[in-house]
Amino acid sequence: MHRVWGPQLPIESSFFRIPRFAAHIAGCWPQSPTQPRTWLTVLRFCVNAFAVALGAFSENFYGIVHLDDLFSALEAFTPGIVKFISLVKMMTLFVRHKRWHRTISRMRMLLLQISLEKRHIMEPLASYGSLLSFVLLASGTLTNLFFNILPLVKMAYYKWQSQELKLLLPFKVTLPEMLVNFPYYPATYLMLTLSGAMTVLSFSAADGFFLCSCMYTSALFRMLKHDIRDAFAELREREYSSKVQNIRIRRRLEALVERHNEIVDMCSDFVSEFPVIILLDFLVTAEMLCCGIIGAMSSASIGILTYIFYCIASLLQFTLYCVGGTAVSESSLEIADVLYDIDWYKCDVRTRRMILIMLTRAQKAKTIKVPFFIPSLPALRATISTAGSYIAVMKRFI
Predict the structure, then answer these.
(1) Which of 158, 185, 294, 314 shows the greatest Cβ crowding within 10 Å of its Cβ?
(2) Using one digit for the tens of pLDDT, what is the confidence trace for 172-229?
(3) CB-hemisphere CA count at 13 Å for 97?
(4) DSSP secondary-structure letter at 173?
(5) pLDDT tens digits, residue range 13-32?
(6) In the 8-state DSSP scheme, what is residue 36?
(7) Which residues of 269-280 are buried (b: 16+ CB within 10 A; e: fewer)?
(8) What DSSP string runs through 45-57?
């Protein structure tokens, strides 16, 4: 286990490991512009996207039609909303693959060309991002597994009890009558199973990509902080700097300023792909948690596990964005702290001016901004509190 998720796992092994695995299966991992997608990859993506779209439409339509039965409507809306958002994530990854690939290439270049000492700074963060991405994939997979197994268990129980056999589907959907009966019933069941699996892979790919990108960006800021300390290390045992030392420090600072700008610009580039995705997750997370918890409270036997895993996956999805946003914000502010702590007062006026310019920029945290809010741990607490309020209200109607 330590070799797979350990803090010293080489970045070559952990670089976007989980989102890359999930997106490759779904057919939406960003490809290099010089290596166009094969027709097989495009076909696989189209089939997967159709399955997710079918599930999203039929489940949400079922919920709308059965609003008079609030619990049945919630059972349909619970996975249906997730599938709709996952479809948006799939399409974003597939359509804007050139910009995503550019971000991946820039991160790879900045992360792999580093010393062994800096790897000890970066690799624990990279492994942490991979571990959380794996937990999201695992919880989503277990949720989908229970959704698909539960109808089979119920039908087996009906047959064992010699009761009338009812044809059940993994999700509550509204489809043409012929598709939910033989001979098309097995194909419909398999298509809905595929819909659930691709939903899990899609949000694991997009959300895992965001978290890993944030962890890598945080590592880049921390390595920059390490280099700033090294640039002024020669002044620790001196009362003031010489002219030659000031020239040498200014040259180092010029390179560090360029790298700082590059990290900030790269962060802005990948964040620009996520506003719609994060906003959708933010708008529906409290509702999804509410639906999942209400479902768990209203279910019996094995059905409870389905909603428990669903709640874990829903909460973890939003948690990844909040953890990633907080990591980037805090690590970017640490640049200002280290600039203030170095022996800047031993330098000449020109060097101090360069330090002041860099300090001024670093004092403004790099935040992950989307319309109406910033993903952060306080936002996570507010979302959980809102979900609790929704649960208290909805219990009065069910």
Answers:
(1) 314
(2) 999 999 999 989 999 999 999 999 999 999 999 999 999 999 999 999 999 999 999 9
(3) 20
(4) -
(5) 788 999 999 999 999 998 87
(6) P
(7) ebbebbeebbeb
(8) HHHHHHHHHHHHH
Distance CA 202, CA 48 (A): 10
d(CA 322, CA 366) in angstroms, rounded, equals 14
Lowest mean pLDDT: which of 37-46, 135-144, 293-302? 293-302
- Quickly list H helices, the chain: 2-5, 11-14, 17-26, 39-65, 70-95, 97-112, 116-160, 185-231, 243-271, 275-298, 303-341, 349-362, 377-394
3-state secondary structure of 342: coil
Identify whether the C-beta of residue 257 lies closer than 8 Å to the C-beta of residue 278: no
Burial of 39 (0-12, 13-18, 19+ CB in 10 A): exposed
The region, left, alpha or beta by phi > 0 then psi within -120 to 50, assigned to residue 356 is alpha
Q: How confident is the model at residue 394 (pLDDT cuts 50, 70, 90)?
A: low
> Measured between alpha carbons, how far is residue 385 from residues 54, 137, 238 in Å?
33, 25, 54
CA distance 149 to 94: 30
Do the Cβ atoms of 201 and 190 come closer than 8 Å? no
256, pLDDT greater than 80: yes
d(C-alpha 348, C-alpha 190), whole Å: 72
Alpha carbons within 13 angstroms on the beta-carbon side of residue 286 total 19
- Mean local confidence (pLDDT), 277-292: 81
Residue 349 identity: V
Does the global pTM surpass 0.85?
Answer: yes
| Burial category of 391 from C-beta neighbours within 10 Å (exposed 0-12, middle 13-18, buried 19 and up) | middle
- Nearest to 173, CA basis, from 77, 292, 287, 67: 77
By CB neighbour count within 10 A (0-12 exposed, 13-18 middle, 19+ buried), where does 374 fall? Answer: middle
Average pLDDT value over all residues in the chain? 86
Measured distance CA(348)–CA(355) in Å, rounded: 11
Cα(4)–Cα(7) distance, rounded to whole angstroms? 9
CB 209 within 8 A of CB 16: yes
